[in-house]
Amino acid sequence: MQLIDYRLFVVFHQQLKNEYYDSSIINKYEFVNVNPRNDLTAINPDYIVISQYEFENFHSLGKWYTESEVIYNIYKNKYLYKDVNYIGFLQHDIDSSVLNKEILEKNLPKYQLINLQPYPFQTDYNQKILMDESQPDKKTGAGVNCYEVIINDYNNFYNTNYTAENLKNVTLNLCSSFILRTDIFEKMMLFIESIIKSGKLDQFDSNRQYRIQGGLLERYYAVWLAFDNLQTTQIPLKHHFEESVAQNSFFKRVINKLKLRK
C-alpha cells in the first residue's frame, strides 16, 4: 500500500488567523505570501512561510490572477511538491480548522479529490458571469456565459462534446480550494496552462477592477475536475471572503444571490 503524504498551500496577502489551522497538521501547511510588503518575521514561528517571488522558476501573471498565479507557479516549480502524492490549495480567509490528521488520513486513501468549496453548478451558471468578447468589461448579465466558453475550451483541448447540460446536476469545486492527487493535478494543469498561455483571459476586465481572471480560472478548475469523474468527497469549509474592496463589491453580490455564504 502506497504511503499517503500531502502538502497544503495557503495563499495569503494579509494577517493569518491561527485558529484556522489544526495543530496536528501544521507541518503539512505551507503559507504562500503574495504581498511583498508583508513582514514575514511577524508570522507564527510554527508556520512554514514561502514567498512566490522567490520561487526558482517564477512566472508573473499579474495579481488579477489572484490565487491562480500561485497555483500555476507551484505547478511550474515541482520541487515544492515532488515529495508528496496529494497537493492542496486554500485561501487565507477559509477556515480549515476542521481539517486534521485523523480526517485526512481517513479520507485521502479513499479519494482522489477532496472538494473544500462545493457549489451547485446550475446556481453558479445562473449568475450569468460573462466571458463575452463583444462586451469584455461586463461582468454579469445578458451575453455569453463563462461556462459556455470554458466547456468549449475543454472540448477543443480533449476532443470531447460536453455541454452545460452534462453539469446540470453536478456539485462543482469552486474557490480554487481542493486537495487533489498530484498526478491528477499535473494532468489538469496541462489544460490550465494552455488557457493561461493563450492570453485569452486578459481581454476581460481591461481595467483590472475585479481581477476576474482568477474568478474565471477557478471555474476552469471546477469544470475540469467535474468532467474527469474523480473519486470525490466533500469537506465544506467556511469561507469568509475577505477580499479587496473592488472584488468584494462584485463577489459579494454573487455570494448573496447564491445564498451559499457559510
Summarize the structure.
It contains seven helices and eleven strands. Helices cover 31% and strands 16% of the residues. The chain has a single domain (6-258), classed as Spore Coat Polysaccharide Biosynthesis Protein SpsA, Chain A (Alpha-Beta Complex), CATH 3.90.550.
Task: Please characterize this protein's 3D structure.
The protein has a single domain, classed as Alpha-Beta Complex (Spore Coat Polysaccharide Biosynthesis Protein SpsA, Chain A). 31% of the residues lie in helices and 16% in strands. The chain contains 7 helices and 11 strands. The strands form 3 sheets. It has a 7-stranded mixed β-sheet. The chain has a two-stranded antiparallel sheet with strand order 5-11.
Largest sheet: 7 strands, mixed
CATH class: Alpha Beta
* CATH-scheme architecture: Alpha-Beta Complex
User: What percent of residues are in strands?
Assistant: 15-25%
Spatial extent as radius of gyration: 18 Å
What features would you highlight for this structure?
globular; 262 residues; alpha/beta; 7 helices; single chain
Secondary structure elements and pairings:
Layout lengths: L5 E7 L16 E5 L15 E3 L15 H9 L10 E6 L2 E2 L5 H7 L5 E3 L2 E3 H5 L20 H13 L12 E3 L4 E4 H17 L13 H16 L4 E3 L3 E2 L5 H14 L4
Parallel strand pairs: 1-2, 1-4, 2-3, 6-10
Antiparallel strand pairs: 4-9, 5-11, 6-9, 7-8
Helix pairs in contact: 4-6
